Amino acid sequence: xxxxxxxxxxxxxxxxxxxxxxxxxxxxxxxxxxxxxxxxxxxxxxxxxxxxxxxxxxxxxxxxxxxxxxxxxxxxxxxxxxxxxxxxxxxxxxx
Length: 95
Fold this sequence. Notes:
Blueprint: H1 2-36, H2 40-94
């Protein structure tokens, strides 16, 4: 009977060993996957940086638009003034 219980114990140890190896292999796979993925904090920092960059670009764009609009208005006004001044000169010359 002692031989029979030894076989049973040996078989049980083999099953336990196999289960342990399977579990350890799963853990190793998960660690490998975790190492491949960037940490969440890095991604959050990158998103924050890009958001800041977009806001700065948006502000610069709006500022540039305003400058162009003002410059366009100024040019139109200047052009109208020149036209009026030229018309007035022509009128004075004709009189």
